[in-house]
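Milestone M4 deliverable, item 7.
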Amino acid sequence: MGLVKKAILRGGLPFIIMTGISISMKYKGMDPYQVKSTFLTGLIITAVAAASVLYEIEGWSLKKQSIVHFLLMLVTVFPCLMVSGWFPLNTPLDFIKLIGIFLLVGLVLWSLFYVLFSKVIKS
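Output delivered:
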């Protein structure tokens, strides 16, 4: 299966599921903030899942895969975080804090999966 098809499948399934849940929540009259949060979580899952195929491109170094993945997360996940309402963004310092959280969480997750998959690949 081609990488584009894999990306569509990996990202499409969570998108459909989370959008369906969000629509159901909206029609049940649930809190709009919760509906929005559920939908944005779905978008984040979609972006992360679809971008995971980057690590299957054999001709790319881990460095290149990681940089492209980071850039994709920067243009997909970061805007979702900005509009989510999960973080106060009233001052420039709030924005800088959000960037720091984004970078720190990304670094921790990247490191965790690097160690995890390094051990899996070795065994």
